[in-house]
Amino acid sequence: MVLVIAEQRDGVLHKASWEAIVAAQQTGQPVQVGVAGSDLARVAAELAVAEVDAVLTVVHAALESYTPDGFVAAFADLVTGIQPDLVFLPHTYQTREFAPTLAARLDRSLITDCVAVRPRDGRLAFVRPMFQGKFVADVSPTGPAPHFASFQIGAFHPDALRLGTSSAEVHVYDVSLDAEAIRQTVEPPFKEAKQAVDLTQAERIVAVGRGIRAQAHMALVETLAASLGAEVAASRPICDSGWLPMDRQVGSSGQTVSPKLYLALGISGAIQHLVGMKGSRTVVAINKDADAPIFEVADFGIVGDLFEVVPALIAALDADA
Amino acid sequence: MKIVVCVKQVVTREWNLRLDDARTWVQDRDASFEMNEPDAYALEEALRLKEQHGGEVVVCSAGPARVSQVIREALARGADRAIRIESDTLAAADSVMVAEALAAAIRDEGFDLVLTGLQSDDQGFSQTGVVMAERLGIPHATIIMKIQVAAGRLRVKRELEGGWFQWVSMSTPALLTIQSGINQLRYATLKGIMAAKKKDVRVVAPPAGLEPRHEILELYVPEKEKQTRLIDGTPAAAAAELVRLLREEVRAI
């Protein structure tokens, strides 16, 4: 049996939970879904439409706000109680914080950021990127079950979800939880007020990565963007360096965009970036490294020095205009 | 405040990686190495906390002799001393084995705070720091973008997805995994490099009985999701052809 640990905040389900359920359904094994919180009636009813054996709600006042200690204690109790063979989670920021603790406390394997599962030589191989996406690895857990795995957001499509003919049963799973033992105190989530740019609405985006090498070269990118009528965006390292404001970051920690045209300059294509732009209609990559992962998602590519190609591109656009 | 920073040595981003014969790791014998980038931010944050609050910064890394390179670099930037866990296998080991080795090496240090990067640039399991906290029996928080310290308590700004943040508090000792971009990195000065040569590096053996939690069956080059049309020619010719394709074929401009 596969236990899927779904994620919710204030009664709103994290959409990646559906993808983890799809991954679980595709193993061919029976699936149960567990979810933790303080008020879960709505989320449980929503989850129960999936073709699963049961939805288990772990309800406790101390689980109203997520804390790593609270969620580890709750799910350690659930996993020990129902003894699944596999535990699947969406590879969200929250999973990254509590799932390694949960697996370590139970002394079990956790393979993170998976994009597929398949049988291989009588074992299960979990497929995941390595070395910044330059390679993919088949990784197999060792040691006793349950084996934990988290799934990269976007790796499975929620449209592939199999719905049940009737709603799945919802059971309340009673946990004993010592609220005093939770060592983290959390404040409500907030957004930085200065988020000024909405890249999700942009028709065209020129995005820049480490290949730009110096802040002084950003002017070249701005000029190209102006010629294309595009917004300027960047991969995380550029924003980390302060060369563009954080709100122009595309990727898992920034915005998720799907413009008509996404032109990636000197972006290698680490998975954290790709998840933010894979939905773009036409992707163009300009990079000096022909093996850069960005070419895996590009429709058009120029392997070359961006400091030669971009001025030529500006000239070609301006000549025709 | 006594801070331990755990850093990993990884192959440089620019290195043209090739798979080894067994196809279970990369050929890294002749590679050039660097400090894992999120770990560099963790080190910088530790140095800034020491400048603010006083104390000591101890850097810890596991791996073969070559790991001394990132330890020297950390000492040159300002760390006070180092612990190196001598092991040929830990450099490519899974994150739980590494976490257990690191936890054992620092357990008796009497630290207030342990910092690591949020994930490694090579394997990227994003587990090492979190598992360390569990093995050390201390609270943790991950993907941290700001650290405030007052009266034995930490208040840290945790990054959530999609531009959301959250403040989380806990008492020390604690472990935090640090997000890239939390600060601006400093470079080692010549004075720092000279001073590093006199700093103490304690070499310890990994604990006995470390068990792998998974096995890499095979590494391979990813399948392409799209058929990329590569445009050849001089920069001018390639640029002109790209503009034509974007205008006429896909009507994206």
Polypeptide structure, described:
The complex is a heterodimer of chains A (321) and B (253). Chain A is built from eight helices and 19 strands. In chain A, the strands form four sheets. Chain A has a seven-stranded parallel beta sheet with strand order 7-11-6-1-4-5-12, sandwiched between helices. Chain A has a five-stranded parallel beta sheet with strand order 16-15-17-18-19. Chain A has a three-stranded antiparallel beta sheet with strand order 8-9-10, with no helix packed on it. By secondary structure, chain B is of the alpha/beta class. Chain B has six helices and 13 strands. Chain B has a nine-stranded mixed beta sheet, sandwiched between helices. Chain B has a two-stranded antiparallel sheet with strand order 2-3. In chain B, 47% of the residues are buried. The mean pLDDT of chain B is 95. Chains A and B meet through helix 4, strand 7, strand 9, strand 10 and strand 13 of A and helix 3, helix 4, strand 7, strand 9 and strand 12 of B.
